[in-house]
Amino acid sequence: MWPKKSNNKHMKRLYISTLAILLLTFGTMTSCTKDFEETNTDPNNPVSISPSLLLPNAIQVMVDRYWGHSTRYQRLNIDAAMCWIQHLSRNIYINAEGDSYEIPLTISSGTWNSVYNESLINFERVKTLTTAGAEYENSNYLGIAMTMQAFGFAYLTDVFGPIPYSEALKGTAEEAINSPAYDSMEEVYAGILADLMEANTLLSTDGPVVVGDILFNGDIMKWKRFTNSLALRLANRQASKKPAESKALISQILSDPVKYPIIESNAQAAQLIHFDVIGSRNKMFDVFSTRSDWNISSTLIEKLLELDDERITVYAQPLDDGSYAGLPNGLTDAAAGTYNASRIGLKYLDPTAPSVLMTYAEVEFIKAEAALEGDISGDAAAYLESAIAASFKQQGLTMPEDYMSRIGGVTKESLMTQKWIALFGQGVEAWNEYRRTGFPVMPAPNPSAVFSNDGILPTRIEYPTSEYSLNKANLDEGVSKLGGSDNMRTPLWWVE
Fold this sequence. Notes:
This protein is mainly α. The chain has helices at 5-34, 36-39, 51-67, 76-84, 105-130, 139-160, 185-202, 220-237, 243-254, 283-288, 298-306, 312-315, 333-336, 360-372, 380-394, 403-406, 412-422, 427-437, 465-470, 472-482; strands at residues 88-90, 163-164, 182-183, 270-272, 294-296, 355-358. The protein has one domain (51-285, 351-482): Alpha Horseshoe (Serine Threonine Protein Phosphatase 5, Tetratricopeptide repeat), CATH 1.25.40.390. 50% of the residues lie in helices and 3% in strands. It has a two-stranded antiparallel sheet with strand order 1-5. Strands 2-3 form a two-stranded antiparallel ribbon.
């Protein structure tokens, strides 16, 4: 029997409704499929990371390791270098944290692992992402990454000696290298100086914008100035070993300020500006404001008092009677407890105080030394006076008119002693220059001092134990390039 007509109408309406629903569903499914990737992407966990996200942390880690770092037993600058160079001294835990020339193994491993795995590798990723033809092609990002990598590799080689360089950072490459070879210091220096010259070419004030630049806030001219000033630092450091090449490079940079701009004022210094929020604050504030384990070294205090140098008022806090006194380095905890010595100045306890990488004063000191050594023309005394004046101004002071007469003639010793004073806070840099030149001349140890390392101020730090377990064959080759044993008494390649 055929169905009734009314039922046919009902079935027809049901069919049309079902079809509409199916079409709507199909359309919705198509739309969802089309937008699936977008709507199901977690913005907090991006699959593709842009250079603007990589750059800030890479810079922050590098600066923290160079300037301060707040993790105990990993503070190379504060606990080791600033004490070894006798800017600071310890009044407690002297045998455990650097002042006695003995350091925890974590200073070595923390420095090595953090610089390679948290900073340099991210600069390498920025380079990969921004090179010509890449997803985020941008010559300014590329130049910044090359400059910061040069800074980081220089930091490591100046601390350890030969390091993985040409084969480093290739663990995720198409042909991965998980056990990188060691390059000699000479090879590392040649490579990073070449990179700095290329970086200067890549960096363009007319070029593309960069985001995430916490050091110079996207000011490419400041990056160029830092790049070329860093090249001056490294060329000058290797000058005794490669005199012709270094002289040529220094002259090349200084003879063409348009092509090779350098730092020419305190306002152009390479320094990270901090904010008073957790994670951003000056690391010296994080360390010194909560503990009183450090005093100003008597070596620095006595030199500043001898020169009647007003920078003492910035570097150190006065005692209750308004005077300044230092603490000898290397004392036992008991002996140190008998001293009433000045603490580090309030400027360095400011959470917003900058972390300094390179200053105008340092550039002028480099010129003064180059002129004194005959590598450039010009008056070494005039450059030295400019350097000291810049250092005073950096600290908010004015250099006295008769200050040059206080230091005597312009000699390698007087120049490097003034550079040592000006590098306060940059302990690693001051340590580099002391090891290179032997200046300033350090006083005889206090009779109550007790030093490890055969009483020798450390010349380097030892490779981390992880390299012995994970990369021993290459490490052994690296030690052979070091020219001595893997200890804190073997001099580095650039020693004069």
